[in-house]
Write a structure and sequence with these properties.
Strand content: 15-25%
CATH class of the largest domain: Alpha Beta
Strand order of the largest sheet: 9-8-7-10-6-11-12-13-14-15-16
Distance between the termini: 65 Å
Radius of gyration: 24 Å
Helix content: 25-40%
Shape: globular
Amino acid sequence: MKLQQLIEALGAGITAAGNTDIDISALAYDSRKVEPGSLFVAIPGTQVDGHKYIPQALSAGAAAIVAERQVETGDKPLIIVPDSRRALAAMAAAFYHYPDRRMRLIGVTGTNGKTTTTYLLKWLLESAGHKVGLVGTISNLAGDKVLPATHTTPESLELYQLFAMMEQEGCDYLVIEASSHALEQGRVSACNFAGAVFTNLTQDHLDYHLTIENYCQSKAKLFRSLDPAADNRYGVVNADDGHAYAFIEACPAPVWTYGGKEGATTVRLLDYTSSAKGMHFSLSYQQQKYAVSIPLIGKFNIYNSMAALTAALAEGMAMDDIIAALATAPQAPGRFELIDEGQDFMVVVDYAHTPDGLKNVLNSAEKLDPRRLISVFGCGGNRDRGKRPIMGRIAGAISDIAIITSDNPRFEDPLAIIDEVEEGIKGVCNNYLIEADRAKAIELAINMAEPGDMVVLAGKGHEDYQIIGDQKVHFDDREYAREIIRRRLAK
């Protein structure tokens, strides 16, 4: 593609110097991935400024440079832009010929429930005969191909590479998790969203956003990005959430709401019951009552189901078809995932790593009426410290026995993190234990479980690693729990 074509995708506010009538063979924002003929985009990151690597990019054969300030590029063209990351998004969209303009792209944002909601929506759309691509926390699905996910929402270049691959695989829909970081940083700023879904908003990522309001407004950018002039655009909002108004106000397209309270004008939850095999609930839609069953546990999964269901309605699916598909919906890996090796107590693994997520999971576990509820949880290092005592209080108040352990300590001392969690649990619960070694904590919980008990391993979910320092060390809660249960049963 010609450099001039990429420049034209940027719009106003840029300056270009040098010959722009040259061929660009690839885009790169990592100088180590530059090949001869590449366009290198220098992005100022939170830890490293890409501008310092421009000499390396030129040495590797970069044909042109995009930067936010005047830099030395020799005889190579220089394009100066106000925001390199958004420029990369616009150029990536153009370089891959705008695949998201030929597929329906639906973004899902919120603190909790994004992954399960995207899996459910993908399942519903596929039940209607569509081929669906998915980008998210657990994996990226390009047709039948599974690719590892490095971020909830990848950088725009990788995102458009995925979109192009999904189109080649014959996908006509794309469903993606839109994280607050991606929305704030402009990674999805060039995306042509047809629909936006909001699940909920509770405390998380305040190490980055600083305030709940900033966090909320970052997520609301997904709704603001909807093009009101385009056909069939919509927003789906959880009306029960205290921040629902921000997403409704931000949406220039028609809004569909769901929930159990007065504000839910599209889909209303009327009642529900739970069991170890799933949830059963009734809904009101267009003055008719519908009975729904899902093979997923927890009231939070009713809300995830309603989010996916409402988006499917907005896409034109019939309610009866949606209900039939939900009855056989798959479990998202690591989301209230049962670990069953034939033991006489329950073990559940869940990704819950926020106060609200932990509360929802433990409350759902409690409603299954276990003899005792034993929880294992921790808090990540170099992340929002404010949620640590809150999660301690929640675990202490709901669990019969709480075990505080490590969860991706990164560059922090695991015991220092545990001390902050312990400040919240003191006075709420005297029956708690501390075991910084996550493997030993899981082994402790499973070995103390008696018939009828329930063990909840929270925080890691689908993740198969622990981040210690700057290293990823293999560790999978599900894998290790199975090993301990088998070892116990073999005695």
